[in-house]
Design goal:
The complex is a heterodimer of chains A (118) and B (113).
Chain A lengths: L2 E3 L4 E5 L4 E3 L2 E3 L5 E8 L6 E7 L6 E3 L2 E6 L4 E6 L8 E9 L10 E2 L3 E6 L1
Parallel strand pairs in A: 2-12
Antiparallel strand pairs in A: 1-4, 3-9, 5-6, 5-10, 7-8, 8-9, 10-11, 10-12
Chain B lengths: L4 E3 L2 E4 L5 E6 L4 E9 L6 E7 L2 E5 L6 E5 L5 E5 L8 E9 L7 E2 L3 E5 L1
Parallel strand pairs in B: 2-11
Antiparallel strand pairs in B: 1-3, 3-8, 4-5, 4-9, 5-6, 7-8, 9-10, 9-11
Classes of the chains: A mainly beta (118), B mainly beta (113).
Chain lengths: 118, 113
């Protein structure tokens, strides 16, 4: 069975602070995909990143960066110089490789509520 | 904007009633997945449709059913509504195959009284 744990329920920071959102996952699959989604108050899940389990290279996109460590089953997300517009719920998700009879079911964590104060 | 649309945006029903939620997938996307998100929780996978057939189902009872149409739009039907069915229902569409990224619509907020 697959499981995603986001231990931080809520994080509150002041604008321009850096913040890291933790994600730990469990899977027996050797090939899988990891995702981060952002959910603003409007409710729509906004895709941020997808990472294949074979690709452990860290990625940076503007103020966002992701640290994938297969050895510790973690896929952490850092926002540098946070802004008020970053306030949202952030979800980490896991899906198995859709070979054979598998399908792209996403298993989500419980989410981390990020509040950035001015 | 993902191009995935859902209707209605909000809905209020009473226990025991039936409801139909609709989703139009992004152009070129042939796979649609449905998720239920209870308040304060992460989304839970309901089922997925690929080329008009159910292709995987989560831990939901048979009163949750769906359809996918030739234009790849989809419906989620819930019979005999229960209070615990109150949630945000999210639809996601995917291009080509199952491992592609899922892009979500804005959701339908269902309240069961």
């Amino acid at each position: 069975a697959q499981k995603v744990t986001q231990a931080q329920t809520e994080i509150s920071v002041v604008e321009k602070e850096d913040v890291t959102l933790d994600c730990v996952y469990e899977t027996r699959d050797t090939t899988y995909y990891l995702f981060w989604y952002k959910q603003p108050p409007s409710g729509e899940l906004v895709f941020l990143i997808r990472r294949n389990s074979f690709d452990e290279q860290n990625e940076i996109s503007g103020r966002y960066s992701w640290n994938f460590q297969k050895s510790t089953s973690s896929f952490n997300f850092t926002i540098t110089a946070s802004q008020v517009v970053d306030s949202a719920v952030y979800f980490c998700a896991l899906s198995r490789d859709a070979g054979g009879t598998s399908y792209g079911k996403l298993t989500f964590g419980q989410g981390t509520i990020l509040t950035v104060h001015p | 904007e993902t191009g995935v649309t859902q209707s209605p945006t909000h809905l209020i029903k009473t226990r025991g009633q039936q409801v139909t939620l609709r989703c139009s997938s992004q152009s070129g996307h042939n796979t649609v997945s449905w998720y239920q998100q209870a308040l304060g929780q992460g989304p839970q996978f309901i089922f997925q449709y690929y080329r008009e057939e159910e292709n995987g189902r989560g831990n939901f009872p048979p009163r949750f059913s769906g359809l996918q149409f030739p234009n790849y739009s989809s419906e989620l039907n819930v019979n005999a509504l229960e209070l615990d069915d109150s949630a945000l229902y999210l639809c996601a569409s995917t291009a080509k195959g199952f491992q592609e990224t899922q892009y979500f619509g804005p959701g339908t907020r269902l309240l069961v009284l």
